[in-house]
UniProtKB/TrEMBL annotation, chain A:
Cellular component per GO, a single term: membrane
Keyword annotations: Oxidoreductase
Stated name of the protein: Short-chain dehydrogenase
Gene3D superfamilies from the UniProt entry: NAD(P)-binding Rossmann-like Domain
SUPFAM superfamilies noted in UniProt: NAD(P)-binding Rossmann-fold domains
UniProt cross-references to InterPro entries, sorted A to Z: NAD(P)-bd_dom_sf (IPR036291), Sc_DH/Rdtase_CS (IPR020904), SDR_fam (IPR002347)
NCBIfam families listed in its UniProt record: PRK07102.1 (NF005489)
Signal peptide: none
Family to which the UniProt record says this protein belongs: Belongs to the short-chain dehydrogenases/reductases (SDR) family.
Keyword Magnesium recorded: no
Molecular function GO labels: oxidoreductase activity
TrEMBL record, chain B:
Organism the protein comes from: Dictyobacter arantiisoli
Pfam families for the chain: FAD_binding_4
Top-level taxon of the source organism: Bacteria
SUPFAM superfamilies, A to Z: FAD-binding/transporter-associated domain-like (SSF56176)
Residue ranges occupied by any FAD-binding PCMH-type domain in the UniProt entry: 15-183
GO molecular function: FAD binding; oxidoreductase activity, acting on the CH-OH group of donors, oxygen as acceptor
Name listed for the protein in its UniProt record: FAD-linked oxidase
Length: 244, 452
């Protein structure tokens, strides 16, 4: 199995990759920091990965995406699964005060993802098989005052994936939208962690299972499907008064 | 720097400490600047030490549980290198399918490698394999002056010896390397033998420790009478049948969880007596032999998450001592009588003979002799007094108490048990301290560390 992971040093990507490593997969790990990628690659090799190569890239360098895809295919000798897992949980308050900050968030969490998806979709469509999996978020299901910039980016990704899924279904390419709820990772370490926070290992396993089964949309952990169903059903007039 | 709101606790949940801050470490290339902290520092892993050796009340707890990456594993030699927050469970998950096993393991696999070194942990094979520290080949230690030191029996060897069993006080272990043990399959040939007296335990132990890599006994101390105790002697070896290597282990059952603190009256000498009776009787035959997977053999309690909650909110005291063989009978006679008289029920009482494999650790607990591990609900001063009396019996018989399980021994006792503490103190990092260390060294002027 040839798996490319974008944002490979994020906790969720790493936890998911551990399951692919156990299967003896060939891994191509992409991220911003060479040091961190090396740490993750060594770990995954000990855990059973057949190979784990790394590629340093800031996803906001959109003009290098073509090169990235070529490198991925050349290194792995093909491509079965691409997992797009990068993202930043920016400071909502800063975004409210700065257009530049807002656009930066949208670039990292939406535009760069859409660019990568466009290129990899074309490659897999021609190949007529493969899987695109993207870590979106429950935050994209409904805009909330506490994180609507992040949520907007994730909503864009979710909608893009819906369309892409329909298009690629004809060529046998699977598109998996993953919507994790709150997970106890470095990204959320500063937050007060309530009952709904899940452990990264369990979420990584959920993501791996969703990819293996080729699910369309996977909430991980699964109870977030119910939570979001309730949240989505609250009338706007009431919702806008809720401290969410 | 990110800090976390959660306050580190120890497994015995006594005492309750409050760190001034908890600093998580996520990456080897983003280690905190230890010199910048105003308060003292102590690394914290999964909080499986029972007492206060993992606590730093009023100081900084550096949470290393996220340093959880493997670095290298040599399938040929079994040498593995990993970050300090990797748990023994993580290692088993990777190693067992490839025919390797931990060189030794405590009764829970949910401890970190850093903690296994800091407490120089031991297991059922102490008589044949020694402590965890005996198998460590090297590690990297970060000192508060920013130095990264590789410590091994050859390099920085004194700091190597001080760090093994050094209770996390000599600096922060970043990664460690140690030797695993070759196995043919994940199964254990185990035998369980009921015994009805302390003498019978000694006979079984003498007979078993030559032939079996692993041995340990569960004991019931509340029976009274001349036999003093009864129990079940469990012993085992790794199964050697290559055919079993392919046999899949039983699917894991969902772990049970103790969701709430039990009220403190749940565990008393009557319920403990009832439990002991049931546990003793459940094995109908005197002698049982079977081949089972390694997990129930090594980690029966890991199947129940948060089992420490059965002792209620006030927590509990673990108490483990070792006495030299020549005082074994007398010390056990006296301590068992003392426990019976006080009517204190110990729920998970474990008896074992340590062997003479010497650990490199300067402050290590295990040494040749008989070791008894007990636990008692915390009933305040009544329990404290009872344990002080037990300390005296241990001391009179040339024994020592295990720091990793202690929350209350006096400074005076500690210094008698570990006369090498002053030698050890030279290697403590000047910025490091713990609740335990302050407690057991109080009343002495702190030496200025010679080792900088």
């Amino acid at each position: 199995m040839k798996v490319a992971i974008i944002g490979a040093s994020s906790a969720l990507a790493h936890e998911t990759a551990k399951f692919f490593a156990r299967d003896g997969a060939d891994l191509f790990l992409v991220g911003r920091s060479a040091d961190k990628l090396a740490v993750v690659a060594d770990d995954l090799k000990v855990r059973g990965a057949h190979s784990a190569e790394t590629f340093v890239l800031d996803v906001n360098e959109l003009d290098r995406h073509e090169e990235l895809l070529q490198q991925t295919v050349a290194t792995l000798g093909g491509l079965d699964i691409i997992l797009v897992a990068h993202g930043t949980l920016g400071d909502q308050r800063k975004s409210e005060l700065s257009v530049a900050e807002t656009l930066q968030e949208l670039n990292t969490n939406a535009i760069s993802v859409i660019s990568l998806l466009t290129l990899s979709a074309n490659y897999l469509e021609q190949q007529k098989r493969g899987c695109i999996a993207v870590i979106s978020s429950v935050a994209g299901d409904r805009g909330r005052p506490s994180n609507y910039v992040y949520g907007t980016a994730k909503a864009a990704v979710t909608t893009f994936l819906q369309g892409l899924r329909g298009r690629l279904a004809k060529s046998g390419v699977v598109v998996v939208t993953i919507k994790p709820g709150s997970v106890a990772t470095p990204m959320t370490a500063h937050m007060k962690q309530g009952l709904l926070f899940a452990q990264p290992k369990a979420v990584g396993e959920g993501i791996y299972e969703a990819i293996k089964k080729g699910k369309d949309v996977a909430y991980v952990p699964g109870y977030w499907r119910v939570v979001m169903l309730i949240i989505k059903s609250i009338p706007e007039g009431l919702f806008k008064r809720l401290p969410l | 720097m990110a800090t976390v709101n959660k306050h580190p606790q120890s497994w015995g949940r006594y005492p309750i400490a409050k760190s001034s801050q908890v600093v998580p470490v996520y990456w080897r290339d983003e280690l905190p600047n230890l010199a910048a902290f105003e308060q003292s520092i102590l690394p914290y892993g999964y909080g499986r030490s029972y007492g206060d050796s993992c606590l730093n009340d009023g100081g900084v707890s550096v949470d290393v549980s996220h340093l959880r990456n493997f670095i290298a594993f040599d399938d040929e030699t079994g040498v593995i290198r990993c970050e300090a927050g990797v748990s023994l469970a993580d290692i088993l998950e990777v190693a067992v399918p490839r025919g390797w096993f931990l060189p030794t393991s405590p009764g829970t696999k949910f401890v970190s490698v850093g903690g296994a070194i800091a407490n120089d942990v031991h297991g059922k094979n102490h008589h044949s394999a020694g402590t965890f520290g005996c198998h460590v080949t090297q590690f990297e230690l970060l000192r508060s002056n920013g130095e990264h030191l590789i410590c091994s029996p050859e390099q920085n060897s004194e700091l190597f010896r001080a760090t093994i069993g050094g209770l996390g006080l000599t600096g922060m272990v970043i990664w460690a390397e140690f030797r695993l043990k070759k196995i043919v399959n994940p199964y254990i040939d185990m035998e369980s033998i009921r015994f009805d007296s302390l003498d019978e335990f000694f006979e079984l132990s003498a007979e078993s420790d030559q032939k079996f890599d692993y041995s340990v006994s569960w004991v019931d101390l509340l029976i009274g009478g001349p036999g003093l105790c009864r129990g079940k002697f469990s012993r085992g070896n790794h199964n050697q049948d290559p055919a079993l290597a392919q046999k899949p282990l039983k699917a894991k059952k969902l772990p049970l969880t103790v969701p709430i603190d039990f009220p403190s009256f749940v565990l008393n000498s009557y319920t403990v007596k009832a439990f002991n009776e049931a546990y003793y009787r459940v094995q109908i035959d005197k002698y049982v032999k079977k081949t089972e997977s390694y997990e129930p053999f090594f980690y029966p309690l890991d199947a129940i998450h948060n089992w420490n909650r059965i002792y209620g909110k006030r927590g509990f005291f673990q108490y483990q001592f070792v006495v030299p063989f020549e005082h074994g009978r007398e010390a056990l006679n006296k301590s068992i009588t003392h426990i019976q008289k006080a009517g204190e029920g110990s729920f998970l009482t474990v008896l074992k003979q340590f062997g003479d494999v010497k650990s490199p650790g300067m402050l290590s607990f295990p040494r040749p002799g008989i070791t008894l591990a007990l636990d008692f609900s915390n009933h305040g001063e009544r329990t404290q007094k009872f344990l002080r009396e037990l300390d005296q019996i241990v001391e009179d018989n040339g024994g020592v108490i295990y720091p990793a399980k202690d929350a209350r021994m006096s400074a005076e006792s500690f210094k008698k048990f570990y006369p090498q503490w002053q030698e050890f103190e030279q290697y403590i990092d000047p910025k490091f301290s713990s609740s335990f260390w302050r407690r057991v060294t109080q009343g002495t002027d702190s030496n200025i560390p010679l080792y900088i």
